[in-house]
Structures are given as C-alpha cells and as structure tokens.
C-alpha cells in the first residue's frame, strides 16, 4: 500500500447526518454484479426470473428502495458482531425511534450465543454493546450499520470479544501518546457459488500462470471488478476510511486498503468493510473467501499486510525507532505467528512474496521478508513499517493491539536485545 500522510479526521464513533434525500445503492445496481463467468448462477437467475412474474419483482425492488424518511423519524440499525469462529460476521436489525449520531445513544441488545458458538445451551444470552456507527449503503437514508462487541449478562467480555482487550491497550497513556497509525491491506478471493472455485477459472481447470492478472484489465485477466468497485463506493458511502483497491496476483483475487486510522478505529473499519463485502457478494451470487491459501500450488496466497507507525517513527530520527520496533517484533515472532490467522502456515512458505513462518526477517523494499521497510522511509529517515505476516483472515483487533503492545509496552531483556540486534544486523 502506498504511504498515506495522515489519517482520516472522521471519528469512529460518529456519523455525519445524512440528507433526507439520500438513497441506498439500488438493488438494480447490485444485480449487475452477477458474474457472467458463473453459468450455473446465470441459469439459476434465469429460472427465478421465469418463475416470478416481472410485476412482483418490480414491486419488491420498489419496496427495497423505498425512502421512509419523509414518513417516519424511525431508522433501521443493523447490529453487527463477530461470531464464534472469530472470522464470521453476524447481524440483525432493530428499529430505533430517531436518528442517532453516537453509539451511546443506542440501546444494548442481546442474541442467542448458543447458535453462534459463543454460549452454552443452558445460558444462551449474550449482550451486544454498540461501539461504532457507519451509514448503511444498502438501506440509505438515516439508517446505520452498528459495530458491536459482546459481553455476558454480568458485563464481562466473552472470550471471542477481542475488541475489549484492544481498547484497553490503546487507552494506555504510553500508547495514546504515540498516536499509532495503521493502514491495513485486506486481500480476498472470489469463488464461484456451487463449485467453490475462483471466479473466472474454468471449472475443474486452471487459468494461465500468474503474471498478467495483478492490476490487470481485460475479460481474460480481470474477474470480479464490478464487485470490487461496488464495494469501494459502498465503503465510501458508509464513511469507512478506504484508501484504494486493486486486482491481486492470483486471478479472482482482490485487495482493498483501509487507513491510516488510529487505534481501534482501524479494526472497526476493517470489520465494517468485511461485512459490506459479504453483503455485496451475497447479492451477486459469489462466495467471499478469506482463506490465506485458497488454492494450493504455484499461486499467491491472501494476506492482510499491516502498515504501522507511531508518532516517534514519523518524526525526525524515526528510522532508529523503527529499527528498535523491528527488534522487539523479532523477539516476539512466535507470539505474533500464533495470533496472525488460521491456516497461515500454508501461506507463509518463503515463496510467493512471503517469508517463512518459522524465521523472522526484515529488509528495505523486500516483499519476501516478515517486515518490509519502504525505500522512501529509508531515504527520509522516518516513516512506517509493513508487517507482511498477517493472514487475510486475521482479526484486526488482535493484530493492531499486538503491534502496539510489542513495540510500545513490552521491553526485552538487555541480553536478548543485544543478541537480536546482532542477528538482524540492527544498530539501535
């Protein structure tokens, strides 16, 4: 991801009031996303169109696009949370009596945790705490998406609530003083619905070797651009700090970047953007995969590279601070690897622009390292580092908090620091 000079001024906990004339992205726009390459999906869509008369379809579309703003003060809030696998997003809708600007204006809610793998059958109730608000690109108007975290009825964070610990770390005065910025590069793969094979690939076969697909254009090179573009606009509409997007090295694989954002805002925005992408692919009849190595063999995996800097790194002399951070990260490599995503060992092989999961490394401008430092950072003597180890299915609350903890709060012994500095050829 290209370096961005400053984070968004948008606060994660507020939204701008929406014009009463704002409209959602219409269902007709979403319908254009159905991929021609997936013949089974196309045949299914044709069958449905024949089975339901066009008048009924039009009436449903009219209701989906209905602007309720002139007729009621009520809004629809879509409460979103992370399920028991740590990667699945769940949601349900609630009517709120009037528009809101801050999560504190929203009521807590509950759900059946036994149905999401987050509570035992004899005590199923889990409580949702609203934490961040985004405009709803599907319903439009004053309707909102609400990122929540989950607690027991006694007010204790449940084990899968990673946001709670992250918020504690980012509230630490030492961390707050360093104003940590994060720019997260989310890679994902689009799969055909019935065969779970990448979009644009011949069923049971393979496309030509990697090379022409990265940032490519053309019907034989780009598969799923409409989904990527629709997601881009929907995120901007929602107020997500999305900064760019591009086709990736493996055909059918895409990337978007979020940030730079400060503290927990970075992860809130990633989770909101993932939810929106799930909804778009749902409507397009395509399966979203965050598997770090969706296709075995000579194909790139999917990562979630995380760009990171602190106030001290961004100021004059910051390169020495970056090197000290790299030293700390090298000493906690195993801790990070255990937290950077399920199945990451299938991706971090030392091939396809990755480092080995077993060995920590760093380099200037090198994409085959654990940590990459850009040429511009070296030239300016200040800037940011890129952690290339996180998998595409990583939890951004875990990764961002761990980076801050390892580089700002954790202190190695002098002996360990000296040995690591010698091994990595770092002068700190």
UniProtKB/TrEMBL annotation:
Gene3D superfamilies in the cross-refs: Glutamine synthetase, N-terminal domain, Glutamine synthetase/guanido kinase, catalytic domain
Entry GO CC: chloroplast; cytoplasm
Keywords (A to Z) from UniProt: ATP-binding, Chloroplast, Ligase, Nitrogen fixation, Nucleotide-binding, Plastid, Transit peptide
Record domain GS beta-grasp: where: 75-155
Descriptive protein name: glutamine synthetase
Assembly and interaction partners: Homooctamer.
PROSITE patterns from the UniProt entry: GLNA_ATP (PS00181), GS_BETA_GRASP (PS51986), GS_CATALYTIC (PS51987)
SMART domains from the UniProt entry: Gln-synt_C
EC numbers for this chain: 6.3.1.2
An MF annotation (GO) of this entry: glutamine synthetase activity
UniProt domain GS catalytic: residue ranges: 159-428
Top-level taxon of origin: Eukaryota
Subcellular location per the Swiss-Prot or TrEMBL entry: Plastid, Chloroplast
């Amino acid at each position: 991801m290209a370096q961005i000079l400053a984070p968004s001024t948008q606060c994660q906990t507020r939204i701008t009031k929406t014009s009463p004339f704002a409209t959602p992205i219409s269902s007709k726009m979403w319908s254009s996303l159905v991929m021609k390459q997936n013949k089974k999906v196309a045949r299914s869509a044709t069958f449905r169109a024949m089975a339901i008369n066009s008048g009924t379809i039009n009436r449903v579309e009219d209701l989906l696009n209905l602007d309720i703003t002139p007729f009621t003060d009520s809004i629809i809030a879509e409460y979103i949370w992370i399920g028991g696998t740590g990667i699945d997003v769940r949601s349900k809708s609630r009517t709120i009596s009037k528009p809101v600007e801050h999560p504190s204006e929203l009521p807590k809610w509950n759900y059946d945790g036994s149905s999401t793998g987050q509570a035992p059958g004899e005590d199923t109730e889990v409580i949702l705490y609203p934490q961040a608000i985004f405009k709803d690109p599907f319903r439009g108007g004053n309707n909102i998406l609400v990122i929540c975290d989950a607690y027991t009825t006694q007010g204790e964070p449940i084990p899968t609530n990673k946001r709670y610990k992250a918020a504690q770390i980012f509230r630490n005065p030492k961390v707050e003083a360093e104003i940590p910025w994060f720019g997260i590069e989310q890679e994902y793969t689009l799969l055909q619905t019935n065969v779970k094979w990448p979009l644009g690939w011949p069923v049971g076969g393979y496309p030509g070797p990697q090379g022409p697909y990265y940032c490519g254009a053309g019907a034989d090179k780009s598969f799923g651009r409409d989904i990527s573009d629709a997601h881009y606009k929907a995120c901007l509409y929602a107020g997500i700090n999305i900064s760019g997007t591009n086709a990736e090295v493996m055909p059918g694989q895409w990337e978007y970047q979020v940030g730079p954002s400060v503290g927990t805002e970075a992860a809130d925005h990633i989770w909101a953007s993932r939810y929106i992408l799930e909804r778009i692919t749902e409507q397009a009849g395509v399966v979203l995969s965050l598997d770090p190595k969706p296709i075995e063999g000579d194909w790139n995996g999917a990562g979630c590279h995380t760009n990171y800097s602190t106030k001290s790194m961004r100021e004059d002399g910051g390169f020495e601070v970056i090197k000290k951070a790299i030293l700390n990260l090298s000493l906690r490599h195993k801790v990070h690897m255990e937290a950077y995503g399920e199945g990451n060992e299938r991706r971090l092989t030392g091939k396809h622009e990755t480092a080995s999961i077993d060995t920590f490394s760093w380099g200037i401008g090198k994409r085959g390292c654990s940590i990459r430092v850009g040429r511009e950072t070296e030239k300016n003597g200040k800037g940011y580092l890129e952690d290339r180890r996180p998998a595409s299915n990583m939890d951004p609350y875990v990764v961002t908090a761990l980076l801050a903890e390892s580089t700002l709060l954790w202190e190695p012994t002098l002996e360990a620091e000296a040995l690591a500095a010698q091994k990595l050829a770092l002068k700190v």
